[in-house]
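The pair is listed for reference:
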Amino acid sequence: MKKAIISMAVVAVAIGLLFTVKSKAAAITGNGAPSGAHYNLNIIGVSKDKAALMDSNSGHRIFVPLYGKIKINLLPGTDFAVLDANGTDGNGATFSLPNPDPDNDGVTSYTVWARALGKPGGTSTTTPCAYLDGVEYCSTSNVVLVREKGKSSFTNVTSQLLYVYADLTGDGVDERYPLFDPRLQDYFWDYDNNGLKVAQFRFYQN
């Protein structure tokens, strides 16, 4: 009788472990991103500047030069939205997104995942930046995307994209400033493109 009870207990534990593994596996899709609803943003590199006016644009894409740097200005909002999709006109682009970490406790209200798409060989670097008394400070941490051959998978870039890490106190140690922290102003992403056709970002609410 004791052997039977032990055997049933072992089976129950095994079934529990099986369901645990399945539930964890279901949280990540085959492309490396979480499953579930999300906001999709494509940053598209183009060889020719766009002439069309793209202010208050509801599309989920921003056009940038195939080579060179632009500013993607960031504004706080209640949701994710492209406000100016033309990053090729010399004025940069504008993207609205919720305040990710108002308490600066390191826990964000959403996560960001990214991957490189398009023709292999292109790269891009996205660096959060902001100003203090007219001086520009860019984060020591950034998102580097490289389009290699074969399947492209998402990686979690939440900490690199939603915070500015910079030494404003002069003590040699970087402090952490979440986007829209009032200690800094005029937040933006410095987007440096080197031939990448598409940088895809996905935003998942926690």
About this structure: Residues 1-26 have pLDDT under 50 and may be disordered.
